[in-house]
Amino acid sequence: MDQLDYHMELSQSLKAMVNRGDFPHILFYGPSGAGKKTRVLALLRDIYGPAVEKVKVEHKQFKVGSTTVEIPILSSAHHLELNPGDAGNRDRDVVQELIKEIAASAPLPTSSSGDTSDWKPFKVVVLNEVDNLSKEAQHALRRTMEKYITTCRIMMTCNNACRVIAPIRSRCLCVRVAAPSAAQIAAVLQATARKEAVTLPPLLAEKLAAQAHGNLRKALLTLEAARVAQYPFDPKGEVRQADWEAFIDGVAADCVREQSPRKLGEVRNKLYDLLAHCIPPDMIMERLTRALLVKLKHDPPLLQMEVLHHAALYEVRMISGSKAIFHLEAFIAKFMAVYKRHLFTSFGG
Amino acid sequence: MAERAVPWVEKYRPRTVTDVAHQTEVVDTLRKAVETRNLPHLIFYGPPGTGKTSTILACARDLYGSDFKKRVLELNASDERGISIVRNKIKSFAMVAVNAKTNAEGQSIPPYKLIVLDEADSMTTDAQSALRRTMETYCRITRFCIICNYVSRLIPPITSRCAKFHFKPLPKQATLDRLKMIAAAEGVGCSDRVFALIEEQSEGDMRKAIQMMQSLHRLAMDGEIAEQAVLDISGAVPAETVRALIAGCQQPNAFKQIQAEVDALLLQGYPAGQLLAQLSGEVVSSATLPDVAKGVISKGLAEADKHLVDGANEYLQLLNVFAIICRSAAPAAA
Ligand SMILES: Nc1ncnc2c1ncn2[C@@H]1O[C@H](COP(=O)(O)OP(=O)(O)OP(=O)(O)O)[C@@H](O)[C@H]1O
Ligand SMILES: [Mg+2]
Questions:
Q1: Subunit contact A21:B333, Cβ cutoff 8 A
Q2: A314 to chain B nearest CA, in Å?
Q3: Which of A111, A133, A317, B77 could bridge across to A139 with cysteines, CB 3.0–4.6 Å?
Q4: What does the pLDDT look like over B155-172, one tens digit per residue?
Q5: Which residue segments constitute the domains of chain B, with CATH numbers given?
Q6: How far apart, in whole angstroms, are the C-alpha atoms of residue A75 and residue A124?
């Protein structure tokens, strides 16, 4: 926990809490790249010491009825970590089996050292991205979390706490993890650069931090990529955006420049490209909306709000539909119509 | 470190029916049932952390004492409870006849078994129909207790056969009393104001209240709990922030500013759903919003909430709600 560069206060007191054996299950929630997993690891180190860093990855097989599921599990002598989402619609069985296994093989006091002061009667199961855990699996966890609490503590992470059912939230200490601010990200980038003996111009650090939008992981990756592409850094250098983001910004520019069936066809092909590169449709919609709102920033707020209204509407249709492209395209067509009407009325067409 | 250290929620789980705080209606019925050894089929329903599971387990302990294991079958959402399990496992447990007898402690125990189906919200209707038949056939030698959060998830033929008990969110005083009892036993430093804040944040969920108090006690390194600390871990957006947002929407040309603020809130990790809930409270009680605007906004909030549950994008939904507030609240917007 000491290695975390921000939110020191909460970290210190969490540490004090887990050092007593009677801490509850914990749910960390907050935006991606905010440092939820880092926090979990730091807590584990505080509970068990460096032994938790000796991890192995195994592909564990679970027999469920007549089928077998295989999912990767990261484990040390004291903990297990997995993404229950990897188990697809078998997540319920996998999670239950793991916890019951742990309960059945409850850790015994280490007799070899003769010193039991460090001995913990429980293991920790880390479940990542529990907002993707099926409702069934979540319900199944309820009584299990209570029954096996002496032998098994659960630490969960998720982006959206509202997708975790109320009975589970009631059983956890819910800890909000805020994304680091741009200044904090810049500081971490500088610290990393120093460790790697790289000179990072402050201006560039700021730009990288601003663009990461609170996502520390992303900022670090971009720094890494920038270093490979060009080092020493140009102090006034531009920061390259992730390709897909730049690409969507281009799509937004297209839509504002020309509203015609021909352009719609072109844009449609670009959207297809994005989907083919496995960019999640809701991220496309969000980025596209943000980009359009930036383009319209000098237009009347009512127009911006109308565009936003349609974006929210078409995104909802998209998640309940099966073909994302239809809804993305329909949104673009709607945008073009709205924007064209606006141009006509405001310039007396 | 204590060897079997468990969180206080488990440590202070009621052991006997009389331990259960509040829930007087069910407690009275069960106390009588334990005395007369006469138990109806039961349905417990209500929100999380109000004592449903604790109550039936305590009742079973009171009834059977050391014969608990032999007489009680407890199945919850982690157990397979499909139609075949109902027809086999549950039925075979239900059909075994038992006699009234005296257990090891010399307590006389009644001539029936108890099957507890906890967390029954997720049971299929088919499984429930099968269950209903088992209930009918073996009602003389087996009692059922079915527990769920929403009674509407159960089929009418089942609900009509049981005595239904609604576990309500715990009233203020009941929560405060229990918190103070535990605080005294554990040596928690806590002012009356802090107790009140914890109770307020727990929203009638006793589990949450106890858990919060323990966490706060530990986070304060076993020292005095500060008021601010309660607000920090409650997960709620500070009330002033929510009010300032609504006031901001009533300024001309607010939309641009709001975009930045929505971004900032989401980056701080507040779930959009949480914000919607708080917004709703503030909007309804707002003194500056006209009634028509309140109606329009409430409708927008409800729709956004539904969409979020369906998995819609948080940024788009939340920003759209604020756009609705801007449009309906702005002074004479063009
Ligand atoms: N009425 C109550 N009196 C005393 N303690 C309570 C009461 N309700 C809840 N608690 C405390 O909360 C904990 C959880 O209660 P319990 O398991 O009975 O909740 P539940 O109603 O079954 O909730 P869920 O719907 O989430 O399963 C208990 O261990 C106990 O510490
Ligand atoms: Mg329960």
A1: no
A2: 10
A3: B77
A4: 999 999 999 999 999 999
A5: 2-166 (3.40.50.300), 172-234 (1.10.8.60), 239-333 (1.20.272.10)
A6: 10
